[in-house]
Amino acid sequence: MPKKGMRSVYHINPSKPTSSSSSPYNFPLRNGTPPRPLFSFSESMIAETISNAEQKISKWNQETSSYAKVTSLFYESREEARDYINCVNDLQRAMHFLLTENPSSEKLIRSQQLMQVSMKRLQKEFYQILSTNRDHFDPESISNCSSVTSRSSLSDYEEEYDNGFEDEIQEVENSITEVERVSVLAISDLKIIADCMISSGYGKECVKIYKLIRKSIIDEGLYRLGIEKMTCQKIQRLDWEIIELKLENWLKSVKIAVTTLFSSERILCDQVFYSSDSIRESCFTEISKEGAVILFSFPELVLKSKKSSSEKIFRILELHNSVSEIWPEIESIFSFEPTSFIRNQALSSLQALGDSVRIMLSEFETTVQKDSSKVPVLGGGIHPLTEYGMSFIAQLSDYSIILLNLMEGWELSVQTRLPESYFSPPNPNESPISAISIRFAWLILVLICKLDGKAELYKDVTLSYLFLTNNLHFIVSKVRTSNLSFLLGEDWISKQEIKVKQYAWNYERLGWEKVVSVLSPVNSMGNASPDEMNNLLKRFSLAFEQVYRSQSSWIVPDSKLRNEIKVSICSKLLPLYRSLFDKYRVTLQGEQRSLGDSSSVMFSPDDLGNYLSDLFYGNASSTTTSTKSASTHSSRVAMVRLNFRPRRCFSF
User: Fold this and answer.
1) pLDDT by residue (tens digit) across 400-410?
2) How many beta carbons lie within 10 A of that of residue 416, not counting itself?
3) How far apart are the first and last CA of the chain?
4) pLDDT tens across 578-626, in order?
5) Spatial CB neighbours of 630, under 8 Å, sequence gap ≥ 6
6) Which terminus of the chain is more exposed, N or C, with fewer CB under 10 A?
7) Does the pTM of the predicted model rise above 0.85?
């Protein structure tokens, strides 16, 4: 590209920016009295200017020239286009002079006719450049060339260039891509035309063309992103699954729409209408307002959909996070006073989302506290409230950073400190996450307190302790495997694990104390008689059978916890029972009798281990066979009485 062509790009003669307080369409030649001209003209100069203008303007008069109808001035010759603009600017100055010195001059009338012809030509050029460069005015190209064109905005289109500036232009030309080069040229051409038309009093026509084409670009861009106009009535008629699809698309599209579509449009508008603050403000507002309001009002409409808050809160948090992340860009792009209502719409959605999250959290807390179910969970298993509550809280913890801002200044519903035995939060001065940690600890405490009340529904205290063991263990497991472990800390987890062990110990003590107490004299029996041992075995068998029958339908869902409890029970029973069993067998052998002759021996130590291994599956009647069957007649009798066949041989 020759240097002469690049001069037409970078050396533009913009009018000085007008005050933003003035009307964008109060132009000197067509409205009111013109200001006193800055130049003086002789008669010969006036005649020469008009003659020169007539020659150039007539050449490109589309009404009289077939060539002008099918050819673009700016596409055909950039140098000639520059001369054409200079000619029109000279004609304008001459008209200013004539208006002041000789308002009734025929030259002024002829000049006005020529000006109208030139403005029609420039209107056509403006429209063609905007239309044919739609692909080059994509967001990326506009952003990349914004710094280049901003430099050109400060250049004087008519001044002589020194060698240093031409070197700089050549450097820029070598560094930009072809697409960027075309964009730079097109934007420069648009700016030259806009400056000329505005200064000549034809800004209204220029702006009308710009709005028509560029608004369609915004609308098309939003349509391609899947952003559509929604109403409260429409969204309430949609199923939540459909709303979720639209919401997911909005989350993916909103950042693109703001940081590329609206941002590039703002850049383009600023560059093209650099000469008038008021015009570029009103122009950008008209182009963007409809699409921006549709975009930023969507989050508030989602809040009005018919969906329970617990299922909606996570989507609301995602919406809040998306708007929060791009809020600085929104403030920057829509910084004009005429676009303040767009900023207010985005801010309104942001505040509504935050308020909605706080309301939903309060509703969750109330739902837990007011749960009125009176039916105890079979077998002391995991209560549905525990599963629902911890699933909600654990998933909520993934949004802790977002919640940190939302929870600021929001006090707990009960103005009391959490017990230190339950939770010791980090120092707020050392950890900004402290406030949100307290909020999560409080929500879990509300759930735990409710579960304490649910435990009282069991008539058997032993089962109530097993229920508490299961449910608190479930809560701790959820904390360990989620972001809650970071928020609550290892100290909180350790404290709750100690409570789980205490509940489990209380269950064992109350549930198996009677059975263990029967065997307590075994170590001090010495040389007990067969009758004494026989009576002891009978008492043990009856006690074990009674406890086993009552607990055969109890459940411990977690396999690790289940095995830990079984190991603990067996460690208390099996050594004593094996010792008694062996002593009794030796005594009977001394009297030349067998175990089969004694009806007091219900099962061997291995059988006892098998029976215990089938506890806590929540099934009173096992249907699987043991890997090691009972070998004695007494064992078969015991299995019939207990309505049970061993499931597996449990290792102790």
Assistant:
1) 888 888 877 56
2) 7
3) 89
4) 888 887 777 765 554 544 545 556 678 888 888 888 899 887 544 333 3
5) 603, 604, 607, 610, 636, 638, 639, 646
6) N
7) no
For 555, the enclosing helix (H) or strand (E) is none
Question: Which residue, among 652, 460, 456, has the nearest Cα to 546 in the 3D structure?
Answer: 460
Residue pair 129/189 in contact (Cβ under 8 Å)? The answer is: yes
- Between CA 258 and CA 262, with CA 260 as vertex, the angle to 5 degrees is 50
Within 11-138, where are the H helices?
43-59, 66-70, 73-76, 78-101, 106-132
Beta bridge partners of 18: 276
d(CA 324, CA 320): 6
Please state, in angstroms and rounded to a whole number, the distance separating the CA atoms of residues 221 and 69: 32
Inter-residue contact 121 to 57 (CB < 8 Å): yes
In degrees, rounded to 5, the angle at the alpha carbon of residue 108 between the alpha carbons of residues 107 and 114 is 90
Per the structure block, which two tokens stand in for 303? 């809040």
Asked if residue 312 lies in contact with residue 247, where contact means CB atoms within 8 angstroms, the answer is no
What element of type H or E holds 376? none
Any idea what DSSP says for residue 259?
I
The Cβ-side half-sphere exposure at 121, using a 13 Å CA radius, reads: 28
> Cα–Cα distance between 24 and 336 in angstroms, integer?
14
* Alpha carbons 547 and 643: distance in angstroms, whole number: 14
Cα 188 to Cα 183: distance, rounded to the nearest angstrom: 8
Alpha-carbon distance of 364 to 314, in angstroms, equals: 13
Q: How confident is the model at residue 32 (pLDDT cuts 50, 70, 90)?
A: very low
CB under 8 Å, gap of 24 or more: what pairs does 59-67 form? Answer: 60/84, 60/121, 61/117, 61/121, 62/120, 62/121, 62/124, 63/117, 63/120
Instruction: Please state the length of the chain.
Output: 652
> How far from chain centre, in Å, is Cα 476?
27
Contact 531, 567 (CB under 8 A): no
Q: Are 356 and 303 in contact (CB under 8 A)?
A: yes
Token pair, residue 392, equals: 């909600």
**What's the rounded Cα separation, in Å, for the pair 33 and 555?**
95
* Residue 273 per-residue DSSP state: T
Task: Confirm if 320 and 350 have CB atoms less than 8 A apart.
Answer: yes
The string of DSSP letters for 195-230 reads: HHHHHTT-HHHHHHHHHHHHHHHHHHHHHHTT----
555 phi and psi angles, rounded to 5 deg? -140, 145
CA distances from 627 to 166, 581, 619 (A): 94, 22, 19
Would you state the structure tokens that stand for residue 183, as one six-digit string?
């964009």
**Which ranges of 225-308 does DSSP label H, i.e. alpha helix?**
232-237, 240-256, 263-272, 277-303
Do 193 and 125 contact (CB within 8 A), yes or no? yes
Distance CA 162, CA 373 (A): 88
CA distance 500 to 510: 16
Reading the block at residue 241, the tokens are 């699954």
Tokens of 451: 């579960």
The C-alpha atoms of residue 177 and residue 214 are separated, in whole angstroms, by: 24
For residue 427, the model assigns a pLDDT of: 55
The kind and range of the H/E element at 650 are: none
